[in-house]
Write a structure and sequence with these properties.
The protein is an alpha+beta fold. The chain contains 5 helices and 5 strands; from the N terminus they run αβαββαββαα.
Length: 195
């Protein structure tokens, strides 16, 4: 190796190093301002392209889209126990158990009469694939996707959300009351009903 090639290697490596530092310096100068928690729907979203990406989570959060699919929520007062959400779910994460009501249950917020008692309504969010099919088939729109996306847990069993208002004891009492009312009013035979 000659002395001339040795010096040319030093000059070349110094130029390369200075070029890299120049690029880093430009990015450092542009990145002095932090990117704010601005959603993609806002007009100044693309003005922040040169800013640093890091935001101070959880104190700052990027707004979530209105049509985002995150955690499921169910309004128990609006559920008519139609079972459509459980039947359409591709991963069977919704468990529903209902039975005919003996007493008057009232109506939902859209005026639909409630005829079934809701004994069990569990959603296992650990199984959920966030497809949103259950929310589209719900006739009373009681099942919705919320904007809550950060719902981590230490125990997997905590991902099962229970929405039924009846305790198991109350459900058993109401089932017994239904059986007693069936026994008290016998059903007419088909031949007597048609004649």
């Amino acid at each position: 190796m000659s002395l001339q090639s040795w010096f040319s290697d030093i000059v070349h490596s110094t130029r390369t190093l200075l070029g890299g530092l120049q690029v880093s310096g430009r990015h450092l100068k542009k990145g002095r301002k932090a990117r704010g928690p601005v959603g993609i729907g806002q007009s100044n979203y693309f003005e922040q392209a040169d800013r640093a990406v890091t935001i101070q989570y959880p104190f700052e959060q990027i707004p979530v889209p209105d049509m985002g699919r995150y955690r499921l929520h169910m309004e128990t007062d609006d559920c008519i126990v139609c079972d459509k959400c459980a039947r359409i779910c591709p991963v069977d994460c919704i468990e529903i158990d209902g039975f005919k009501a003996v007493d008057e249950l009232g109506t939902t917020s859209d005026g639909t009469k409630k005829r079934l008692e809701l004994a069990t309504f569990n959603i296992d969010m650990a199984k959920c694939c966030f497809c949103g099919l259950c929310t589209t088939v719900c006739p009373t729109e009681c099942l919705t996707m919320t904007k809550t996306y950060d719902f981590s847990e230490y125990d997997r069993s905590n991902f099962t959300y229970k929405f039924a208002t009846l305790s198991p004891e109350e459900a058993d009492l109401k089932r017994k009351k239904l059986e007693e009312s069936k026994k008290a009013s016998p059903i007419r035979p088909e031949s007597a009903a048609t004649s």
